[in-house]
Amino acid sequence: MKLIFIVNPAAKNGRARKVWRKLEKLLQSSNIPHDVLFTAKAGDGVKLARQVVARESGRVMIVAVGGDGTIHEIINGIESSDNVVIGYIPAGTGNDFARGTNISRHAEKALHHLLSHPKVSRYDIGTYGGSQISEGQFVNNIGCGFDAHIAQKVNASKWKPFFNRLFLGKFVYVFYLVKELFFYQPTRIRLQVDGKSHTFERAWFATIANHPYYGGGMKIAPFAKADDGALDVVVVHNVSRLKILLLFVTVFWGGHRKMKEVTMVVGKKIHIDADDVLPLHADGESIGAGNITVSAGKTIHIIANGSINTTDE
Ligand SMILES: Nc1ncnc2c1ncn2[C@@H]1O[C@H](COP(=O)(O)OP(=O)(O)OP(=O)(O)O)[C@@H](O)[C@H]1O
User: Fold this and answer.
1) Mean pLDDT over all residues of the chain?
2) Where does the DAGKc domain start and stop, copy by copy (predicted)?
3) Assigned domain for 217 exists
């Protein structure tokens, strides 16, 4: 199988470039033939993956080197081409895709596993669309409301490089979470899951998860499985500002699921709209604002590490 790496050298504030240099040395010293393509700007992951798919007629493994935004773009470039297998080497800030697939967050170990145990698994991906947004696919989660608002703030943040330099990348989420907690206004969210309607007053956010992890290790949907053909919806509603802070502590081990203000629903076709025009994110990348329809049912081939999406719940 042909091996092609797509590297986002800008991931983790440029540290992914150093990670790639180490990986390339390993590949060269082991005489492993490979091609490498580098993204030069946002959106290139989609374009490069699309070009590879159009060019290669035989079996090909496309290995994403970067963070969740990089794997998100590459998946959106390959659609669900049968001759393509996806590998992933985490080199980003949050790396939730690595958590959801049990891939080591140590890049060299992840490469070693990829090359020595290339067992192919089926992995669910979600598809989305809406009246005010383009269509796309996600690997980890998609959401509207407070979490998308935080994702926008984190991605635009001058603090992200600062935290990354201190090896505290994931705490940038916590920083913005606490800051924005005082200003964000919850709203009414209407949810349709497989034809059944649910309304939530004063909802902070709704997240649709493919596996448990988001925001750099928060176990938002502890029971989500990326090979069950379904998606887990988590809605946080009617919660005080103080308690939402507690929620974002307990979410790291999944304890938030016991709160009465947290509702979890599983389904395959989900529509969300709200009284306000809510910001949206897919895999932590801003995708606009407004209503959204999300579907399960597509799968891709990936190299995971043993069982995918397991949690220690
Ligand atoms: N060469 C580049 N220069 C600048 N930005 C790029 C480049 N290539 C890709 N990008 C953009 O970089 C963004 C961040 O990438 P990515 O999400 O992989 O890293 P991260 O933010 O450090 O990690 P994570 O999402 O896991 O927290 C993506 O939105 C992607 O579109």
Assistant:
1) 91
2) 1-132
3) yes
Binding site membership of 32 for ligand 1 (Cβ less than 6 Å): no
Q: What is the ipTM of this complex?
A: 0.96
For ligand 1, whether the C-beta of 77 sits within 6 Å is no
User: Could you tell me if 268 and 138 lie in one domain?
Assistant: yes
Decide: 92 in ligand 1 pocket, CB within 6 A: yes
Work out how many domains the chain is built from and give that number. Answer: 2
Average pLDDT, 10 consecutive residues per value, the chain (313 residues)? 96 92 96 97 97 93 96 91 92 92 94 89 95 96 94 81 69 81 95 98 97 91 96 97 90 93 98 97 93 96 70 39
Q: Is the pTM of this model over 0.90?
A: yes
> For the segment 263-285, what is each residue's pLDDT rounded down to a tens digit?
999 999 999 999 999 999 999 89
Domain containing residue 215: 126-297
The answer to whether position 99 is within a domain reads: yes
87 shares its domain with 162: no
Q: Atom 3 in ligand 1: which residue has the minimum CA distance?
A: 41
| SS (HEC) of the chain | CEEEEEECCCHHHHHHHHHHHHHHHHHHHCCCCCEEEECCCCCHHHHHHHHHHHHCCCCEEEEEEECHHHHHHHHHHHCCCCCEEEEEEECCCCCHHHHHCCCCCCHHHHHHHHHHCCCEEEEEEEEEEECCEEEEEECCEEEEEHHHHHHHHHHCCCHHHHHHHCCCCCHHHHHHHHHHHCCCCCEEEEEEECCEEEEEEEEEEEEEECCCEECCCEECCCCCCCCCCCEEEEEEECCCHHHHHHHHHHCCCCHHHHCCCEEEEEECEEEEEECCCCEEEECCEEEEECCEEEEEEEEEEEECCCCCCCCCC
In short, whether 93's Cβ falls inside 6 Å of ligand 1 is yes
